[in-house]
Amino acid sequence: MIRIIIADDHVMFRQGLIQLLQGVEDIEIIAACGDGQMALATVCEFIPDVVVLDISMPLMDGLTTARRIVQDGLPTKIVVLTSHDDPHVRQQAAAAGAHAFVLKRDAFEQLLATIRAVAQSSEIMPFALRQTEDQSTDLTDRERQVLRLIARGLTNRAISTDFGVSIKTVDTHRTNMMRKLDLHSTAELVRHAITTGNV
């Protein structure tokens, strides 16, 4: 079970995320907050596995909240939400200690996979939010399609049905991708897809 806290000052958007994640069998929402100070206090109290932080919040913005979480030595992984797809903002988020970066416009498609990938990562330090040299360019178009579906949680059987190919063919694509990207598990494939925008 992945224990999470959601912090976003837009009530409707926050409620939408709660509805998205409620009932997901491996997700437990332990709190939802509307400002950075409450988010920090709640993280300190409950020590969730993952906190989802909007960058723009009252009282304390998301990046300051992320920095405080890291400075306090808390083990909680940090997923940053923002409306702005700006490389400078991504760099600021990485410097603040964020483990992943999700655009609000993509949140309802990407957030669940992002939370799972971040929670499963054994890395203590944040991983790159957007690689400048994406090895995914070495993948074929079909491999990139398979990668996107894996990142969205589809099984080999579901992908084979979707593409009208055998499960063995999908497994071959997966094996080739892992070899090209030097990855060794499904969790690493999902993380790579999220951090390079291939979702």
Walk me through the structure.
This protein folds into 2 domains: 119 residues, Response regulator (Rossmann fold, 3-Layer(aba) Sandwich); 61 residues, Winged helix-like DNA-binding domain superfamily/Winged helix DNA-binding domain (Arc Repressor Mutant, subunit A, Orthogonal Bundle), CATH 1.10.10. Helix 3 runs parallel beside helix 4 and helix 7 crosses helix 8. It is α/β, with parallel strands linked by helices and 199 residues long. The protein starts with a strand and ends with a helix. About 4% of the residues have low confidence. A 5-stranded parallel beta sheet has the order 2-1-3-4-5, sandwiched between helices.
Q: Based on helices, strands and strand pairing, what is the structural class? A: alpha/beta
Distance between the termini: 23 Å
**Could you list the spans in which at least 5 consecutive residues all have pLDDT below 50?**
127-134
Q: At the fourth CATH level, what is the homologous superfamily of the largest domain? A: Response regulator
- What about the largest sheet? 5 strands, parallel
Count the strands? 5
Could you tell me the mean pLDDT? 85
* The top level CATH class name of the largest domain: Alpha Beta
Q: Largest beta sheet: what is the strand line-up?
A: 2-1-3-4-5
Q: How many structural domains does the protein architecture include? A: 2
The coarse silhouette is elongated
The succession of helices and strands, N to C, reads: EHEHEHEHEHHHHH
